[in-house]
Protein: Dynein light chain
Organism: Austrofundulus limnaeus
Amino acid sequence: MAGTVEGKKEEADYKRLHSFPLIRHTDMPDEMKVETMDLCVTACEKFATNNESAAKMIKETMDKRFGSSWHVVIGEGFGFEVTHEVKNLLYMFFGGSLAVCVWKCS
């Protein structure tokens, strides 16, 4: 019985530890960074099993708020090299291994 309770506690600690957003790289201004990060977390939680829908939601919202030509990639185990406008790139992790890259180019 004690092993089960201990196992659930460790699982809860693991989920809490890996459910916060971790910004790997950004050059966005602080206000834009916070707003984009919150949007990414909301989209990834809302569409937990469908990365394409989450990316579409982030892209459409960013296009409305900050002008057009935003691009979004969500997934695990990918690399990238992009050309972007200065102060318009965010690369973050959410939920442990789910990566989100948001950038603007015109």
The longest strand covers residues 98-104.
